[in-house]
Design brief:
The chain is of the alpha/beta class and 503 residues long. It has eleven helices and 23 strands.
Length: 503
């Protein structure tokens, strides 16, 4: 089989791939994440790239390699921390892995010293088959795509782990154990467990406690002698990430009158009532908060606007890295929407204010009109469209409706809640006050708002260091009542009522 070279400009990076490899796959392997919100069907156009010395635009997900090719694209993949701490040669080591729908993160756990730190992060390559769990379950009905979903994840994990360990001069044989966390679908795809039942009611589970295996059985040859384990799952859409958070809260003495939400494409929530009982559910928030399904959305990567602040001369943008912004992250979308809502530019129903004499836009924003409709210009070509606001509303509506029904099931009023716990890597740059201002969660008067970070990765790391953590997590799972929103009468009506922003 012939090989062809892909060259990236302006970096000059080169890599060879077999004849027929899709250009989108090649670019992802080279560290260039492309938007494929259509699941690789070639209809969204968001993976368009310029190729050739005389640039020609092509759809990367539909372009196979038949010759050497030059692509004008920057390298923009999350690669984890640049500077990694030294690890004593005497330390016992394990790996913690959080398999997110959008991003995969890896931590090294120093068991001897009882510490852990992140060593790698990368975009989940399964995103070429869809940006959300449901899309990937649907793709898995095609056996070739099912094999692709599993292969993509296993190979990416192996490559990134090997690269991170090599950068730290750590031999793979030193890794004693690897613990996985994540939502149920991601873990099932990794383990090769059928995910098709997860896509249709009543969403039956074949297993809730995944077996311990040699890491090599999961494609991780670089740490093949290590034992691989996973945190237990609760339900089809309440995965190990939620169960891990339950166990972390229990370990910190958080046992009652608490509300927890893990923000992501699939939002996971639980409420601890006044008697220490847990009630959990999940909701499809969509990919807007993680920068997907948004016109100029992107993950919190180099070039992403992550915060929008109000300054004396207008709005100020904060971004990751130097240079010109390439897009807007979900956290900045929350900031901007909350500001425009307060100024009356966005109405509670989500529509832009129209007509002369309407509320003025803060500098440097501009109101523009083209054949695609009205939009708000932010910076260069970056814009906020009416569709983007609608995507945010869908996430907000799902989050609020799920929160209210979960409180009802737990017999708690918002006034009863003493602690509101927000988790997810998304929240690193999130303004919790603006998040609450948009109505993603009930008001919770008097509750202390806390951001916990990536509890899924934290729980996996804790399991690496504490051998009894997985058993305690399973015990927390077994005393948790899962609430199925789809089976609740009136949920759809409540969701529709929850779409509107607070006045």
């Amino acid at each position: 089989m012939s090989l062809h070279t892909v060259t990236l400009l302006p970096s000059g990076a080169r890599q060879m791939f077999p004849w027929g490899t899709l250009l989108s796959d090649a670019l992802l392997d080279m560290g260039v994440p492309l938007e494929t919100s259509c699941g690789g069907k070639g209809i969204c156009g968001r993976c368009t790239v310029a190729v050739g010395q005389i640039p020609e635009e092509v759809i990367a997900c539909r372009t196979p390699l038949t010759r050497d090719i030059t692509v004008r694209a920057g390298q923009a993949l999350l690669e984890g921390p640049v500077a990694l701490p030294a690890v004593p040669g005497s330390s016992a080591l394990s790996l913690a892995v959080d398999i997110g729908t959008t991003t995969v993160r890896v931590s090294l756990a120093d068991i001897t010293r009882g510490a852990s730190f992140e060593i790698a992060s990368f975009l989940n390559p399964q995103r070429r088959h869809g940006h959300d769990v449901i899309s990937r379950i649907a793709a898995a009905r095609d056996r070739s795509k099912l094999r692709s979903l599993q292969k993509l994840l296993r190979e990416a994990l192996s490559i990134r782990i090997e690269k991170a360990l090599r950068a730290m001069s750590i031999e793979g044989e030193r890794i004693e154990r690897v613990v996985f966390s994540g939502n149920t679908t991601m873990l099932f795809l990794l383990y090769g467990i059928d995910v098709i039942p997860l896509g249709a009611a009543p969403y039956p589970l074949r297993v809730r406690d995944l077996p311990a295996l040699p890491a090599r059985d999961l494609g991780l040859a670089c740490i093949g002698s290590a034992a691989a384990e996973a945190l237990p799952v609760l339900g089809a859409f309440t995965g190990a990430d939620l169960v891990g958070a339950l166990a972390l809260c229990a370990g910190q003495g958080i046992e009652k009158n608490a509300f927890f939400i893990d923000l992501g494409t699939n939002g996971e929530l639980f409420v601890l009532d006044g008697h220490g009982r847990a009630f959990a559910t999940s909701c499809a928030m969509g990919p807007a908060l993680e920068g997907m399904s948004v016109s100029w959305g992107m993950t919190a990567d180099h070039g992403a606007i992550t915060r929008v602040l109000e300054g004396t001369a207008g709005l100020e943008f904060r971004m990751i890295g130097q240079g010109e912004p390439r897009g807007i992250a979900g956290t900045a979308l929350v900031d901007l929407s909350a500001i425009l809502l307060e100024k009356g530019v966005i109405k509670p129903g989500g529509a832009f204010s129209s007509g002369p004499g309407g509320p003025p836009l803060p500098a440097p924003l501009t109101l523009e009109q083209d054949k695609g409709g009205r939009h708000i210009g932010l910076w260069g070509r970056i814009r906020l469209t009416q569709k983007d606001v609608r995507s945010l509303q869908l996430a907000k509506g799902a989050s609020l409706a799920a929160s209210l029904l979960l409180l009802e099931e737990a017999g708690r009023e918002p006034e009863d809640i003493e602690r509101v716990l927000v988790a997810g890597a998304f929240g690193e740059h999130l303004d919790l006050d603006r998040f609450r201002r948009l109505g993603f969660i009930p008001g919770f008067p008097g509750a202390r708002m806390e951001f916990l970070g990536n509890t899924s990765l934290q729980a996996a790391a804790r399991a690496c260091i504490d051998p009894g953590f997985i058993a305690r997590a399973a015990a927390c799972r077994d005393r948790t009542r899962e609430i199925s929103l789809s089976a609740r009468p009136g949920f759809q009506d409540l969701f529709l009522r929850s779409l509107e922003f607070p006045a």
